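Thread: Newbie trying to understand structure tokens

Hi all, I'm a second-year student working on a class project, and my supervisor (Dr. K.) asked me to get a predicted structure for one chain before our next meeting. I've only ever worked with sequences, so writing a 3D structure as a token string is new to me. If someone could post the tokens and maybe explain what I'm looking at, I'd be very grateful. Here's the chain:
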Amino acid sequence: MSGPASPPVVPGEVVLEHASRTFSPYGDRTRTLKEFAFGRRREAGLPPVRALDDVSLHVRPGDTVGIVGRNGAGKSSTLRVLAGIVPLQEGRVACGGRVVSLLELGAGFGREFTGRENVYLTGALHGLSRAQIDERLEAIIAFSELREFIDMPIRTYSSGMLVRLGFAITAQLDADVLLIDEVLAVGDEAFQRKCMRRISERIAAGTTLLIVSHSPLAIERICGRVLVLESGRVIFDGPTPQGLLEYHRLLGEGEPVIERVQPTGTRPGLVEALEIRDGSGRRRQLFHSGDPIRVLMRLRDRIPEGAPALVLAIRDRFGRPVFATQTRPQPSQGGAWMVFEIPRLALLGGDYDLVVGGYPEIDRLTGFSVAEEPDAEGVVDLRGRWSVQELIEVAS
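---
Reply by user tm_fold:
Sure, no problem. This is what the structure looks like when written as tokens:
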């Protein structure tokens, strides 16, 4: 006798219940004639890898969820299960409405087909008629910026061009649930920004988003919730700032910027808004070494007597401490903007996290990037001046 039927999901709703899936470390190996005749397989030397281990997840329509974790944690496997590419061995999966995914470079593309032909092929796979694809074709080509290559076989495309075409198609599909893997990291910076704008538009229209990314900046910008995976299990599911902190702790590359900075949720946040601006007052998240930078933090309206110190900290992409400072706001400063000015950003190229909050809790986390410099490597910008001098001059 079968058990009670599972409740149906509404469009945009995502459900995983006690989901488990293992994979062989050797992949799917064809059986030999001897193994087939005697009804057994040769034993593999390594045990199966548990990609998902009793994972449960409920995402409401319109939610935006970032999935982070170390390599092999089960992030991509989770999206493949939700997309219906990989079946579960245990548990239940359900996604309401139309699910659109961008999970692998060129996934579903015919390599001998042209870019234009692959637009029609992909659209048909998502249930669009030829007439519906015709209506979207010009917008797809324009978004991809591949007009001069659109009638060339995609086997001639670079990885960046594949991403452009794949996302351009995805951007024109009406989705209730949008699944995106790390593939967006391949495109150039300008195209990534365009993709983020399009994703933001889909979110504003009510699309549910689940995205895998190693970029804290991308996750913080568009996701209200973070799922942290480790060895196929969920170890954190909650607000984005706390989730990104937990992810950095997982990396094992040094302690957090401020010890015990983990949020406890025992009080209202001290900082209600956080912005990064350049020396001219414009909002920016990409800087060059030596640029001036201003950090603006809007304090909550009421600051009680004995409020905790306001801490500002910067760490690199591995969670290693770079810099930290603090000040103690007064009750009279409630509702004001606190500004921390750095006249010269002495950091070298890379991605950095900026954390602010009332010690020892985190209220806001965002990210910024510093462009690479051709003549220096590392984290701190200590570039000086090279010169050649006579020995006697140096000695004196």
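A couple of things are worth pointing out once you decode it. The first strand starts at residue 14 and ends at 23. The chain has two domains: 14-26+47-249, 258-370. Feel free to ask follow-ups in this thread.
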